[in-house]
Design brief:
The protein is of the alpha/beta class and 274 residues long. The chain has one domain (9-202, 241-268): NAD(P)-binding Rossmann-like Domain (Rossmann fold, 3-Layer(aba) Sandwich), CATH 3.40.50.720. It has helices at residues 18-29, 41-53, 70-82, 105-139, 154-157, 164-184, 225-233, 243-254, and strands at residues 9-12, 33-38, 57-62, 87-90, 146-153, 189-196, 210-214, 217-221, 265-268. A 7-stranded parallel sheet has the order 3-2-1-4-5-6-9, with helices on both faces. The chain has a two-stranded antiparallel ribbon with strand order 7-8. It is globular and about 60 Å long. It starts with 8 loop residues before the first strand and ends in a 6-residue tail after the last strand.
Length: 274
């Protein structure tokens, strides 16, 4: 099976831990050079060290992906270090849950900023180089397939109670995926999305085990312990997925195996729907 990404350059956001780290390591293991980004510098450097120890070429760029200047920095890092942009994985995200009557404007907007605003701005920042490269290649009689993989969720497909902001952002990224598949097909760019169910990350651990600090807000992440077993029972496979299992379909969409697939959403949930 052709998963060889030698000579390809990828940008992966939210790569400091969890699914993003697993994706970055898989891409590096299959030959890609990877620009990795995360809000938290120390976990990001751990990802870079792991990829480099496995023989990968990695450029870490720490920073908040919702900072409007950061997408340009990621594009500059990819072109400056590796002279190309072939794969973009919009993975960065987190949950900030409340029922709608308790959801503040700031809370709702934060979910839109990270899950749809940041991917939009990164793709826009990369668009000029991608379009010009494709035009040059087409003029030379070459077809170079590039890949965009946007991360969504069953919350954006089916809805999960308490996630008006998160679900809206994750639904929005599906719309962006389908629009760009039509806009960028002429440039030989495949644009797809992977929608995750319950994957073993800090977002699905027991609530209260960890909190994250985002722009002055301390946000408890996780799931009510009483709900975890019920969530597993809703899954035909009877368990949460691992981050390595989650990274598999992303790798598929980044590889030549998906060269004739675009505008699609692949659900990776172990069969669980809500």
């Amino acid at each position: 099976m052709n998963q060889d990404l030698t000579g390809r350059t990828a940008i992966v956001t939210g790569a400091g831990r969890g699914i993003g780290r697993a994706v970055a390591l898989k891409l590096a293991a299959n030959g890609a050079s990877v620009v990795v980004n995360d809000l938290d510098r120390d976990p990001l450097l751990e990802t870079a060290a792991q990829a480099e120890s496995a023989g990968g070429r990695v450029e870490p760029v720490a920073g908040d992906i919702t900072d409007r200047a950061l997408p340009d920095r990621l594009v500059e890092a990819a072109l400056g270090s590796f002279r190309s942009i072939d794969i973009i994985v919009n993975n960065a995200g987190y949950t900030w849950d409340s029922v709608i009557q308790k959801t503040t404007d700031d809370q709702f907007q934060a979910m839109l900023d990270i899950h749809i605003g940041a991917p939009f701005r990164l793709l826009r920042a990369a668009s000029e180089w991608i379009r010009e490269a494709a035009k040059r290649e087409i003029g030379e009689g070459r077809r170079v397939a590039r890949k965009v993989v946007n991360i969504t969720s069953i919350s954006g497909v089916d809805g999960i109670a308490g996630q008006s902001g998160y679900g809206s952002g994750k639904a929005g990224i599906i719309g962006l995926t389908k629009v760009l598949a039509k806009e960028w097909g002429r440039y030989n760019v495949n644009v797809n999305a992977v929608g995750f169910g319950f994957i073993e990350t800090r977002l699905t651990q027991p609530l209260g085990a960890e909190a994250i600090d985002i722009k002055g807000h301390r946000i408890n992440v996780g799931v009510q312990p009483s709900a975890i077993e019920a969530m597993k029972q809703r899954c035909p496979l009877g368990r949460f997925g691992t981050v390595e299992e989650a990274a598999g379909p992303v790798l598929f969409f980044c590889s030549p195996l998906s060269d004739y697939i675009t505008g699609e959403v692949l659900i990776c949930s172990g069969g669980a729907r809500v």
